[in-house]
Amino acid sequence: MIEFYPHQEDVLEQTKGRMKCAHYLKMGLGKTFTGAEQMVRLAAEYNLLVCQKSKVGDWINHITAYYPHLNVTDYTKKDAEIQPGVIVINYELVWRRPEFKKMSGFTLMLDESSKIMHDTAKVTKFIKKLKYDGLILLSGTPCGGRYELFLSQIHMLGWPISKSLFYKQYCVTESFKTTDGMWHKQVVGYKNIDRLKRKLADYGAVFMETEDALKLPDVNDQVIKINPPAQHKQFINDRIVIVDGEEIVGDTPLKTMLGCRKICAYHNEDKFAALSDLVESADDRVIVFYNFTAEYIKAYDAVKHLNRPVSAVNGQAVNLTAYENCERSITFVQYQAGAMGLNLQKARRIVYLSPPLQWELFDQSKARIRRIGQKKTCFYYYLTTTDSVEEKIYKTLKQRKNFDEILFLRECIVND
């Protein structure tokens, strides 16, 4: 018998008997437990559980441990067959499995349902065509702070509101002219969000903030300012530079933004020196978040002289052996691969080598250590290149917004 926290019991009570529901619980509140229990209570013969690649093993272990009567199939394996019980697969593979289109009457559970925000994505189109009876959506940030991307999930829950009406009632837009001479229309804010959440409650959605349910440890944020390399100013002026043999060209605003990010992220030796100093001064586990593969390679080289065990979570591998077993380990995590879903509360320190562009990834990454089970103050270190795009990105992320090409132009980082 699973012993749930009071807030988890409350969530399950609110969605009791519902065939379609959403547990939008902030990170660390245990939506894995509520989602799995909701699925079991629906008692479908077949259950399709779609999650991130890095979470497949965690879900299999969770269901096996708490619901041993259920058969669990790892459908990421090539020889796997559809069987009664729980079928676990990741988002990158599910839309490549046409046999799921033949299924009907099953329960579909989407862990980190924000993965289906974009209606034009292949995975979203595939999932929306499935013939399920039961639906469970799980996410701490269901739309990444961008409510205009919420419609896919809203429609799946059964609310048939049109896009135009949704924008009219819940979004604030404005048009502006950028330095490239083009006019753009952008969502700049939102309205009536409390009313939106009340309406979604009618369709089985439960929203819960961490502060409403738990007392989590204190947070200590530390911004560590890093001087920009000489090539940064050269690139801003000339839109082209060669650094360590890599030619970086900014012939479009998007490429200019990417070039600035690369130079700040992994062509800045002062940043890696600061990382080395930070890790050396910490006598416990350290988590390091990064964007680019080249950034990871240089970061690894910068700390290898410390002879500390290393784990890594990225698009190529998920290896947490050192993290699990070694108190003084270093764990490198690429945002896209591990900002969502991982339980890293054995650590209490996160170092941000460079910021992501998506607020959702930034917000979720923080909750990898500040969650149920964490009892110590959590430290976040932001290695920030001064007078650069990184400062602009962090400023935007703190406003719970994504940073994109439009903002890059609007913030006048590029001055033609």
TrEMBL record:
Residues annotated as domain Helicase C-terminal: 270-373
Domain SNF2 N-terminal: 27-264
A Pfam match: SNF2-rel_dom
Alphabetically ordered keywords of this record: ATP-binding, Helicase, Hydrolase, Nucleotide-binding
Gene Ontology molecular function terms on file: ATP binding; helicase activity
Cross-referenced PANTHER family: DNA EXCISION REPAIR PROTEIN ERCC-6-RELATED (PTHR45629:SF7), SNF2/RAD54 FAMILY MEMBER (PTHR45629)
UniProt name for this protein: Helicase conserved C-terminal domain-containing protein
Organism listed in the record: Eubacterium aggregans
